[in-house]
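hiii, so i know i said id send this last week but things got crazy w the move. better late than never?? heres the sequnce for the chain we talked about at the cafe, plus the structure i predicted for it. fair warning i was half asleep when i ran it
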Amino acid sequence: MMYGIVLEGGGARGAYHVGVWKALNELGIDFKGVAGTSVGALNGAMMVQKDLEQALEVWSEITPSKIINIDDKFFEKLKNRKISAEDTTTLIQYIKAFLQNRGLDTTPLHSLLYRYIDEKRIRNAGIEFGFVTISLTELAPLKLFLNDIPEGKLIDYLLASASLPFFQMQRIDNNTFLDGGVFDNLPISLLAEKGFKNIIAVRLVRKGLKKWENRSDLNITLIKPNESLGNMLDFTKERAINNINLGYYDTLRVYKGYQGSRYYLNGCPDDDYFLHILLQMDKTGLNRLRKQLGIRNMPEKRFILEKLVPLLVDMLSLGHTASYRDILISILERAAAKTAVNRFEVYEYKKLEQMVIESYRLNHQAPLPGLLKGNELLLRAKKEQFLDEITEILFNGIKQN
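okay and structure toks below
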C-alpha cells in the first residue's frame, strides 16, 4: 500500500512529528510521499532522507538559541515573564535588533538546516516531496515539489515555508516569502493531487479534518494530540521531549486501538464492566452524595444513572456520546495524574486500575457544602473537590467487591 504523510506547521510543536515518525517506523509503515508546511516541511525533508535517529537527536537537544539569535537563559526569563530591572538593557537590545531585522534573527536555524539537510540525498530518494510557502512579491501561494525548485535552492525554499510572521523574512532572488501556514497549514491537497489515496495527516492542534471529511476517494488516517503542545516558540528540550513522546504514543493509540485520552490503555473491559462498577459504588459515600445533591428519596440505581452519570459527563467535559467506559476511564486517568503515574507507557487497564486504587489518597479538604442541589455555580466552583469525592467512592466500591 502506497502511503503519503502530511505534516502540519506549528513551530516548536513540530517535535510531535518526530514521535509520530518513530512509531510509524516501528510499525513498519513507510511512505512514498511527504508534504508539509513550515516546520512540517523541515521535518518532512528529514523524513525523505530517512534520518530518524538524527531528527530525534536534533529535537531532543533543541534550544531557543539553535533557532533564533537569543541567549537561552534570557529566553527562559521571557517565557516565564521574569524579566528584572537588570535585564532591561538586554531586552532593549533585542527589541532594536527585532525592528532592524524586521523579525527575529533566524541565522542559527539556517546553520542547523545546512548542517543536517542533504539536498542531493533528498532529490535522489525517489519520494514525492512537496511543501507550501507564500510569495509576498507575487502576492500568491506557492505549492512546490522538488522539480519546481532550482538545484541548490532547496534549503532556501524550506526556510521560506518556515518563515513565521515574527521571523525575519526569507528572500530568494529578490523575492520575499512568508510562512506557508497562512495559506494551507496542512497541505493534504499536495499529495491528493499526486494521486495518493492513503494519507496519514499529522496535526499539531486538537482540531479534526472537516475540510476533508467528505472526500470518499481518500483514506485519511488522522493523528493529533489531545492536549496543547505548547507555544510555537517554546524551543526547549523539556517541551520537545514531551512532544516527541506524545507523538509516539498517540500514533500507537491510533494504530493499536489503545483507550484513554491522557494514558494509553490496552485490554479495556466492555461497557458492562464499567456499568457494574458504577452500580457497586460504596453505599456510605453514595448516600452522602445524595444528601449533598438534595436527592434522598430517589432509588439508588436511578440516582446513579439519571443524576450522577449526566453530572459526571458534564464535569469531565465528555460530550453526550460518552459511554460508561469513557466516564470511568476519564476518572481513572484523572486519579492516575494526581498520583503522578508515568503516562508514557502502555498499561493493561486492570494493572493501571490496581496501581491507582492502591496509591490514591484523597487529599481531604474542607467538607463539601451540605446542600448543592440547584446551585450550579457552587457545584462548578467545587468541581475538583466533588470529582475527588466521587473517585474515592468509586474506588472504595471496587475494593469492597
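btw The first helix runs from residue 15 to 26. thought thatd interest u
miss u guys!!
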